[in-house]
Amino acid sequence: MFAQSEDQQVFESTSARFVESQYPAERVRALARAEAVFEAPLWREAAALGWTTLLVPESAGGGSLSGNGLADLLIVASLFGRHAAPGPLFGTNLVARALGTWGSADQQAGPLAEILAGDAVAAWGHRSACTATRSSTGVVVSGRVRSVESAADARYVLVSVDEPEGRSHVLVPLAAPGVALTPLKGVDQTRRFWDVTLDGVTLPGAAWVGAMGAAAEHDDELLDVASVLALGEMAGALHRAFAMTLDWVANRYSFGRPLNSYQEIKHRMADLRTQVEAAEAVAARAASLVGSGSGSGSGSGSGRALASAGMAHVGRHGPEAIQDCIQLHGGIGVTNDCDLHLFLRRTVLDANLYGSPAEFARRLGRLVVAQGVAG
After folding, report:
1. How much helix, strand and coil, in percent to the nearest 5, is found in the chain?
2. Can you tell me the distance from the alpha carbon of 311 to that of 228, in angstroms, rounded to the nearest whole number?
């Protein structure tokens, strides 16, 4: 879907075979009923395919296929959406990017190397209400991080904390004393979330990630990347739902005629195709800009603005489009036996995982206003 170069096409083909073989719909449904969905051996295989290295600079052990690692990773995100696949793809890559870009040499030789090899997964605590107090031996962190994906499977969580120099990042080992996890229920049954409580967690001074007071700016950059990955998943889910519906209306008959021979059905399918192509186009363009380093500007044409606009639009209309696919399937569509619900759940989650469509619309508005003031 998003592969352009020959290298990307080979990467897409290899990754697609892996995802398709491991996560057919019946297995995804079985995992939804399982107590745990994370499988460490499979994740190590995924890491061997290159899924964990794409957002990390070569100097830190990573590397991309095309020179734009985010555009490469978008290929994998779309496959996850197309199959409603589980796995710590987002959080692990976001933390890998943070450590590869801002982390110390020790962090890159330790936690980052574990992540790149697939021996550890990580989580991004983007909804953090934590404070840090410096001690003689390091830092003591307390507070709560809401809705952390894969927290029970992760070895590390990247958390922003309030401290005297401003908002800063720390890397917290989830096995540290004082860390408690509370499981949450979610709309996507193969994506698991936990609230993480930090009660006087003592960390060494080496736990700081990046410059002190830089977490607000860095979180904005990570949000740009996360938005592009969410757009890729939603585009993949929409693509799959549309393909299923296209096949359905071509092969189901009503009053002796195939459903797709009726004008109303034709119009609805055309509208759905427009939504699919819009999602794919904005995801690809946002990945191009954000991944090439054009994402942090305040202009309305920046990658940050485009990623925000994409989340505002696709986050609102993507779930509606899949709902329409369900309606076009008739009675079977509204039952739990219809696989379209897997993709609806995935899209609803992605649309709200890092902020609601309305919040992204407000973010876009602030960028446009800032551009007007600067002009």
Report:
1. 55, 15, 25
2. 8
Q: Which residues make beta-bridge pairs with 161?
A: 130, 168
Q: Which residues of the chain are in CATH 2.40.110.10 domains?
A: 122-209
pLDDT > 60? residue 300: no
Which CATH entry fits the domain spanning 122-209: 3.20.20.140, 3.40.50.720, 2.40.110.10, 3.30.428.10? 2.40.110.10
The model's pLDDT over 91-143, given as tens digits with 9 standing for 90+, comes to: 999 999 999 999 999 999 999 999 999 999 999 999 999 999 998 889 999 99
Q: Which of 52, 87, 65 is nearest to 13 (CA)?
A: 65
DSSP-derived letter for residue 138 is E
Which residue's entry shows tokens 């710590």? 88
- Taking the C-alpha atoms of residue 364 and residue 311, their distance in angstroms, rounded to an integer, is 10
Instruction: Return d(Cα 173, Cα 157) in angstroms, integer.
Output: 7
- Over residues 290-298, the mean pLDDT reads 71
- Tell me which residue has tokens 């508005």: 365
Both tokens of 242, joined, read: 């549309």
What pTM did the predictor assign?
0.95
Dmax over Cα atoms in the chain, in whole Å? 81
Beta carbons of 85 and 38 less than 8 angstroms apart: no
CATH 1.10.540.10 region(s) of the chain?
A: 6-116
CA distances 119 to 39, 134, 159, 249, Å, are: 11, 31, 21, 45
Nearest partner of 226 among 373, 97, 359, 56, judged by Cα = 97
How confident is the model over 16-62, as pLDDT tens digits? Answer: 999 999 999 999 999 999 999 999 999 999 999 999 999 999 999 99
Domain 215-374 class in CATH: mainly alpha
CA neighbours closer than 13 Å in the CB half-sphere of residue 3 = 15
Residue 335's identity, in one-letter code, is T
Which helix (H) or strand (E) segment holds residue 92: the answer is helix 89-102
Give the 3-state secondary structure of residue 65.
coil
154-193 residue pLDDT tens: 999 999 999 988 999 999 999 999 999 999 999 998 999 9
